[in-house]
């Protein structure tokens, strides 16, 4: 679904600075109250998929005219709170395709984009294996490349980053970490990172292991049960007693 929406969004004027990207613009004639009316239907989505009904206002540039919209509906096709639509009544003779989001207001803040970096010229590559990282940080199949669009790149959290960005603008993951993440499948990475566990006399064995599992889950998106099942517990217990015997 993510790559489908992104591919559609590339056809419209969307900006890297925005949390919301348009993926469909439609002009539709409907009969309302026995009158023929025409509406501009705009469908858009929260590209970080972290919507919590906090979008209050959306500021649009409609063919050079500024529009403020405060009412949004869920899109039936997806039935996902991150994917929404809006309608603006227009004159019957209007044909409008040139629409862009230039700002928005949510529960926490209002933002109007002073810098506008369009993404509409980014082309989706045919190699969809690269997009596996967008669906899940890991899979059983090894992925050998950071998912890229031209020279720019996608992080496992779904954020689009430009070529010169060494760290993901949304989650802070570095390119180096992402390369490490996608060049090892889940089991290999768990084994590799297990050697980095350090025990302290200030924590119990279980506390350290739980902290490790939480950190790996948060950073790499691996299921907690999968991490636990593939830890070499016996070796770690030996390491725990050995390191604590010197304290």
Q: Strand pairing plus helix content: what structural class?
A: alpha+beta
Proportion of residues in extended strands? 25-35%
Largest sheet: 4 strands, antiparallel
Question: How many distinct folded domains?
Answer: 3
Describe it.
The structure is a single chain. With 247 residues, this protein is of the alpha+beta class. The protein has three domains: 2-112, no CATH class; 128-182, no CATH class; 186-244, no CATH class. It is 26% helix and 27% strand. It contains seven helices and eleven strands. It has helices spanning 2-9, 132-135, 175-182, 186-194, 205-220, 224-229, 233-244; strands at residues 20-32, 35-46, 55-62, 65-69, 73-74, 83-90, 99-106, 110-112, 148-149, 152-154, 160-161. A four-stranded antiparallel β-sheet has the order 1-2-6-5. It has a four-stranded antiparallel β-sheet with strand order 4-3-7-8, with no helix packed on it. The protein has a three-stranded antiparallel β-sheet with strand order 9-10-11, with no helix packed on it. A hairpin with a 3-residue loop joins strand 7 and strand 8 (110-112). It is elongated.
Task: Annotate the secondary structure layout.
Elements: H1 2-9, E1 20-32, E2 35-46, E3 55-62, E4 65-69, E5 73-74, E6 83-90, E7 99-106, E8 110-112, H2 132-135, E9 148-149, E10 152-154, E11 160-161, H3 175-182, H4 186-194, H5 205-220, H6 224-229, H7 233-244
Task: Please sum up the structure shown.
The chain is about 25% helix and about 25% strand. The protein has helices spanning about 1-10, 130-135, 175-180, 185-195, 205-220, 225-230, 235-245; strands spanning about 20-30, 35-45, 55-60, 65-70, 75, 85-90, 100-105, 110, 150, 150-155, 160. The longest helix has 16 residues, at about 205-220.
């Amino acid at each position: 679904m993510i790559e489908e929406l992104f591919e559609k969004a590339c056809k419209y004027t969307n900006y890297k600075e925005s949390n919301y990207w348009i993926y469909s613009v439609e002009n539709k004639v409907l009969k309302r109250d026995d009158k023929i009316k025409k509406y501009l239907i705009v469908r858009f989505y929260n590209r970080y998929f972290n919507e919590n009904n906090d979008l209050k206002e959306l500021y649009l540039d409609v063919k050079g005219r500024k529009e403020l919209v405060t009412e949004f509906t869920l899109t039936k096709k997806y039935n996902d709170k991150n994917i929404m639509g809006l309608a603006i009544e227009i004159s019957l003779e209007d044909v409008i395709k040139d629409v862009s989001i230039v700002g928005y207001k949510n529960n926490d803040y209002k933002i109007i984009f002073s810098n506008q970096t369009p993404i509409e010229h980014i082309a989706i590559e045919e190699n969809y294996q690269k997009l596996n990282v967008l669906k899940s940080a890991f899979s059983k199949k090894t992925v050998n490349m950071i998912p890229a669009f031209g020279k720019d790149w996608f992080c496992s959290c779904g954020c689009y980053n430009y070529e010169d960005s060494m760290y993901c603008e949304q989650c802070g993951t570095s390119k180096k970490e992402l390369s490490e993440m996608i060049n090892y499948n889940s089991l290999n990475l768990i084994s590799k990172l297990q050697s980095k566990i350090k025990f302290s006399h200030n924590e119990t064995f279980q506390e350290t292991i739980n902290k490790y599992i939480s950190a790996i889950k948060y950073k790499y998106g691996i299921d907690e049960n999968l991490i636990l099942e593939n830890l070499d517990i016996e070796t770690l217990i030996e390491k725990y007693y050995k390191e604590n015997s010197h304290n």
